Amino acid sequence: MAVSLGPNASSAGRRRADLVFQAVALVVLAVALGALAVLVATVWRDGAHRLTWQFLTSFPSRRAESAGIYHAIVGSLYVIVLTAVMALPVGVAAATYLEEYGGRSRLARFIELNIANLAAVPSIIYGLLGLGLFVRTMAMGRSVLAGAATLALLALPVVILSTREALRTVPSSIREGSYALGATKWQTIWYQVLPMAVPGILTGLILALSRAIGETAPLITIGALTYIPFAPDSVWSAFTVLPIQIFNWVSRPQAAFKDNAAAGILVLLALLLTMNAIAIVLRDRYQRKGRP
Amino acid sequence: MSLRRGERAIEVLLFLCALASVGTTAGIIAVLAVETFAFFGEVSIVEFLTGTEWTPLFATKHFGVLPLLLGTTVVSVIALVVAVPTGLLSAIYLSEYAPERVRRVVKPVLEILAGVPTVVYGYFALTFVTPLLQQWLPGLSGFNALSPGIVMGLMILPLVSSLSEDAMRAVPRGLREGAYALGATRMQTALQVVVPAAFSGITAAVILAASRAIGETMIVAIAAGQQPRFTANPFVPIETMTAYIVQVSLGDTPQGTLEYRTIFAVGMLLFLMTFALNLLSSWLRARFREEYN
Q1: Of A94, A105, B168, B256, whose CA is between 20 and 30 Å from A10?
Q2: For A182, which DSSP code?
Q3: What percent of chain B is predicted at pLDDT more than 70?
Q4: Per the CB < 8 Å rule, is B17 touching A97?
Q5: What is the reported pLDDT for A91?
Q6: Of residues B17, B92, B263, nearest to A90 (C-beta)
Q7: A56-290 has which CATH code?
Q8: Residues 6 or more apart in contact with residue A20 via CB below 8 angstroms
């Protein structure tokens, strides 16, 4: 790159270099965003014709044309709801401790560093943890419960980080006003601080869940099955989820199954889009209600 | 009195939840260590770390992890070659050039790239990018390191871009104004003042991206093949550490066997590598923050 245009380079030349640089940067951005468009278009081209009511309500099958995705949708919903139920209370509690109680103590700093690191641990490692801890040691087997517990651990750092962010936006005058009226620390947190932080917490939770719902590797590692002909009916059921069903279809050589995979991807993307839309609406509504 | 005791109990409860995160790390290390220890009871650690043949699922077993390590490295390097220059350029553009309006639209759209499930990227690599590349590279095998590497680069681009941009935006305005006062153009200011000033922050971003690439699983499990080969050739099928763990998990390997333990030994290696990179990255970021606060 012609970076070092010296002090003697002509003013016009330097200005031209500036324009060229800006153009290159714009092209790069356009290519990256274009790739996203091509990705969606490819999936749509391959999968749209398989998106029928029959596809959404059928079980897997050896024949691609009659195979469906009902069991995987139910499995994904089961897992994600359980994950939320486990990750939300623990995550919010941990964040509340770090933000409102922990202060700058050495232990709090250590926990923070640890959480930052956990957020960057590869998801498949969480799968190995889930396999060793939940499936074997705690004898949950390859159940919905074990899968959700694994994903809850995976989602925890994201929930903690976003909850802390939300708590930080609550002005300290709110806390001081509450103390002035004689409230205890916990009363202040429970009745004043947390309600004000709800939109931020929910947005963070949905963000974490939309990452979890697309996760494949950790659930394969704990032994979620790639072929099951039924939908889960309890937390102890064997299960599969959308991404695993997609992976199963992608790995088959026949083109018809690849189209099924594309249709599955469309369902998954629609689910993600819905979750993000809910997050935006929630944040919007609470913001209008909560803030002056 | 009881009120105060209740307050104290709540604090302890919250603290225990915070401690759960430390418990997660401890759990990861414990689970990996136990099985890895058992694994090295049967296989020599020297063979594991220096062997160039990885055939634990065959009749004649070899436990040299280097083919998996090399496969992981090749894919990750390709991903970084794609993501680092493009991510940095995007970051420079967003931080130094783009009007606020453009920035507010482009940034979230770019973030979508990071939010696409990796199994979707795997599908894209296998059914779109590989056939496309095969038109120009007739020697390219249906499974290869190149195509998943490129797609993975697309996936980690937003990570490089947004963390580098944060680092650049943290550079004090005064430095830029000084450069402009000396007659520098925006490009000269960006490349010769802002980027060097934000260098440790940018390095931290690149290291974190490398860690993400090493640990990425589904793209390579779908599009790179399952053939552990000791080669740096990006045109032939290979296998990464993560794809091997998936391969074994899909089969029905009984607990307690040597094959079962291999995935924990490989997982341990993967964990140690990413852990070291993550620590290095957060150390660099902390240092960067110190410089300007």
Answers
A1: B168
A2: T
A3: 98
A4: yes
A5: 95
A6: B17
A7: 1.10.3720.10
A8: none
Q: Residue B293's pLDDT band (boundaries 50, 70, 90)?
A: low
Q: What's the domain count of chain B? A: 2
Mapped onto helix, strand or coil, the DSSP state of residue B255 is coil
For residues B78 and B112, state if they share a domain.
yes
B34 lies within 8 A of chain A by CB: yes
Residue-wise pLDDT for B71-96, tens only, equals 999 999 999 999 999 999 999 999 98
- pLDDT at residue A64, as a whole number: 78
Interface test with B, best of A1, A3, A29 (most B CBs within 10 A): A29
103-162 in chain B: CB under 8 A from chain A? 106, 109-110, 112-113, 115-124, 126-128, 154, 157
Residue B89 and residue B208 in one domain: yes
Residue B53 lies in a domain: no
Question: Could B18 and A265 be called an inter-chain contact, meaning their C-beta atoms sit closer than 8 Å?
Answer: no
Q: What whole-number distance in Å separates Cα of residue B75 and Cα of residue B238? A: 9
Asked whether residue B103 falls in the same domain as residue B31, the answer is: no
CATH code assigned at B200: 1.10.3720.10
The pLDDT of residue B58 = 82
* Facing A120 at nearest CB: one of B7, B90, B274: B274
Instruction: Write the secondary structure of chain A as one string of H (helix), E (strand) and C (coil).
Output: CCCCCCCCCCHHHHHHHHHHHHHHHHHHHHHHHHHHHHHHHHHHHHHHHHCCHHHHHCCCCCCHHHCCCHHHHHHHHHHHHHHHHHHHHHHHHHHHHHHHHHCCCHHHHHHHHHHHHHCCCCHHHHHHHHHHHHHHHCCCCCEHHHHHHHHHHHHHHHHHHHHHHHHHCCCHHHHHHHHHCCCCHHHHHHHHHHHHHHHHHHHHHHHHHHHHHCCCHHHHHCCCCCCCCCCCCCCCCECCCHHHHHHHHHCCCCHHHHHHHHHHHHHHHHHHHHHHHHHHHHHHHHHHHHCC
The reported pLDDT for the residue numbered A8 is 56
Choose the closest CB to B124 out of A25, A26, A42. Answer: A42
Residues B170, B276, single domain; the answer is yes
Residue B209 · residue B156 · CB < 8 Å: yes
Per-residue pLDDT reduced to its tens digit, A132-174: 999 888 888 888 999 999 999 999 999 999 999 999 999 999 9
Within chain B, strands assigned E span none
Is residue B245, in this structure, part of any structural domain at all?
Answer: yes
Would you say residue B220 lies in a domain? yes
Touching check for B218 and chain A: CB below 8 Å? Answer: yes
| A235 at interface of B, judged by CB pairs closer than 8 A | no
Residues spanned by the domain of B152:
66-292
Q: In chain A, which stretches have pLDDT less than 70? A: 1-9, 226-227, 286-292
Q: Indicate whether B259 and B164 sit together in one domain.
A: yes
On whether the pTM is more than 0.95, the answer is no
pLDDT, tens digit, for every residue of B252-289? 777 778 888 999 999 999 999 999 999 999 888 887 77
Q: How far is B192 from chain A (nearest CA, A)?
A: 8
Same domain, B272 and B134: yes
Which two structure tokens, joined as six digits, stand for B11?
Answer: 């604090």
Token pair 């109680």 in the structure block, residue = A101
Number of Cα atoms under 13 Å in the Cβ half of residue B292:
19
ipTM: 0.92
Question: Residue B51 falls within a domain, yes or no?
Answer: no
